[in-house]
Structure formats: C-alpha cells, structure tokens
Amino acid sequence: MVRILKQQPKQLSLYSILYDKISNDHILKAINNAVDLSFINKQLASSYSKDLGRPAKEPEMMARLLILQYLYNFSDVRVIEETRLNLAYMWFVGINPEEELPDASLLAKFRTQRLKDTSIDDIIQEVVRQCVDKGIIKGTGVSIDATHTLANTVKKMPERVMKHLARKILRNLEKETGCIPDKVNPDIPEYKEITDPKEAKATMKEYLETMMQEVENAIETACAPETAKVLEETKEILKDEKFILQKGLRSLIDKNARVGYKTQTDSFFGYKVEYMMIPEERIITAVKAFDGAYVDGTDFDELYNRTKACGLTIKQASGDKAYFRKAILDTLKEDQVEAIIPVSASVYKIDENKFSYNKDSDQWICEMGNVTVKKVYSKTQKGHECYRYTFDKTVCQQCTKRAECAGKERGPRKYRVGLHASEYYEYSQVAQTDAFKE
Description:
Blueprint (H helix, E strand, L loop, with lengths): L2 E2 L22 H8 L4 H5 L11 E2 L2 H14 L3 H10 L1 H7 L11 H10 L5 H14 L7 E10 L7 H20 L19 H22 L6 H15 L1 H4 L13 E4 L5 E12 L4 E9 L8 H9 L7 E3 L7 H9 L3 E3 L14 E4 L4 E4 L5 E8 L5 E7 L1 H6 L3 H5 L7 E5 L2 H11 L2 H4 L1
Parallel strand pairs: 1-2, 3-7, 7-8
Antiparallel strand pairs: 3-5, 4-5, 5-6, 9-10, 11-12, 12-13
Helix pairs in contact: 3-4, 4-5, 8-9, 8-10
C-alpha cells in the first residue's frame, strides 16, 4: 500500500510568482473559488496506509488532474504533458512550477483502484452541497430521467455463448493437463446446422452439461484451477433461467450488460444510467448505472434522498410517464413537492370521457349521471387486484345507453378499476390544467 503525503504549503517557491500572470476570470480559478476539493483526501483516507509503502500523490491532486482531463478532453498521457507546460494547469493542481507531476499510469490506477473505495455520489453530493451553500445553485426544481449506453461488444445468442464456454473449458483443460482425456467429448455440436432455435439451444445446453460432468469425472479439478474456474462460471450462467430465454447474459466480454428497450420494438444491448438534476443550472445531483433491463424509476428513492442531502429546497419534481408510480407520487406528496409527471395510460386506465370520480363520496359517475352504490375488493382471473364498483340498477335499466354501455350484462353496470385509480384520478385532473401543460 501507499501512504498519503502530509499536507504541506504549496506554491511558495520563488517561481510561484509566475502564477500572477493567470487571469482572475480563468475558468479554473472560478472552479477553485466555487468548490473546496480537499474533502476528497478525507473521503479516500481509508484506502491508503498511514505507515507503509511509498509516498502517494494526494487524492485531491489526482482528482484535479481528472477534472482537467475532462474539461479539455485529454488522454492520461496528454493531461500530464499539458500540465507540465501550462501555468494555469499547474496552479490548479496545486504544484510549484519546478515540481514533478505523477506518471500518467497513476491516473488509471487512481480511477480503478482508489475511486472505487468511495461513491461517485458522495463526491457529487459534496460538490453540489458547497455550491448550494454559496448560492451558486438556486434552483428549487429537479428532474429525473434515464438514458441508455451501448455495451462495447455485440450481444450473442445463448447457443453461441455456450459454444464459447465449451471452447474455453476445453482450451484450459488441454493447457493445464497436457491433453483432453479420452472420456471427454471434444466435438462441439454445429448449432448453426439446426434450423429450430429451441432445438439448437437445447442441444448445446445438453452437450455442455454432459461435457462438464465428463471433465469433472476425468480430472482432479484442484490440479487444474483455471479449468475449475471456468466450470464454476459456466454452471452459474446455466443456472440462470433467463439465460436460455435470452433475457440474461449475452456476452462473455461484458457479463453485466443486458438487453433493454427504448420502445416496444426498439431494443439495445448495454446499460441504463439514471440521473437526477437541477434543470435551471443543468447540474446533476445524483447518478447511478444499471444494466439495460433496468426499469426506470425503480431506484428513485436513493437518487431523490441523495439530492435532498445536497441541501436543496425541492419544490417541484418532473419526469416522464415512466415515473408515474404510486410510490414516487406518494413520496413527493409527503414532502409537499409538486409532481410534474404525465399520467401513464398503462397505469391509469380510466376513460374520463365516460366516467368521473367523486373522492368525497368514493363514487364513480357515468356520462349519463348514474352513480355507483356499491364497492367490493376483487381479483381478476390473472390475479390482478382491483375494486369493482356497481351502479344503481334501476337507473341503469332505464338508461338510453344501456345496451351500448353494459352490453350483455343483465344486472346493473359494474365498473372495475385498479386499487389506486381514485388517487390517480386527482393527478389526472391536475395534468389537464394549463399550468401543468406549460
């Protein structure tokens, strides 16, 4: 392990007078004045040893180099080269002109080994909090959305993945034991010659499972650790029922990527990144990455709570129809936050041209003025919970639209709604106002 350098005064050498040439309106000075990045040293302190190893470059310096890298689109090597030559960059990272910068390879290590010990949300949260405290961020509204990111590989059919796994097992087996035992069948089926996709998957799965058993019977897996590792990996993959259904793992290169959908017919392979931001300043307050199959809004509470922890006064929250969920609406209502979220027809299936709702009496009213007189809880044949409202029988029988409305029903008209339809009705009325639409 390495230890953090002790905090020492910087930029006090004879050459630091050169920094006076940097304009006061330089973007890096604006960033430095807005945010105190020294908190990064404290956040990452536990990932360094206090007594062992070589001295480390301070996490704050490394973070500032990453900021430069982002601002000016530099590579790891380029950001070090440019910082050696640019006074403003040297000043921003906190070194004297004659001091040496870390090797470019340390940037990659810092990203992959050090930053993983903290949450990027913790860093975002502290930066936003400081900006709120200083009055730089003044917005009172937040918005939430998710965007998709493509995986840096192609998705493969399960039978192709199983072929790669079989090859990997046999390759490691031969490398570690010197040969493929006679008891192990090395002839992988040609799945492309099988026209029925289901049969192709079943054939490959049967071969792979049989071959794996043959390998375990033929050798001591403890003497072939790499082979044993691939065997365990393959077992875990085959154990997942989603795998054969093409809803699970689709690549051995990127095992976490999944198939997701932008529309009912437009799919992608990769990840979803969900984020909450302040639209006025376009500042992200919380962000989280998920696999492509993630359903928007599932992790709303964590993003929302992290945003509140930034010290923001939230008065409005906006999102698309994916966020029209009772749990989300209830959270916002409890905090007295106005929800600017369009009504989702897939959740709220009420024809408001024919039916309206009176929340005080808990009654539905049809377009002809008849009201419900009875309400019972029930379940559909598919197990969906709902309420079944019954209209006044005598009024229904005399209604001129009975045949059109009730169809073949002999008794009074019955109207089935979801458990939370009455609550959604209120939101629906608000969503129809001019202020909401604007």
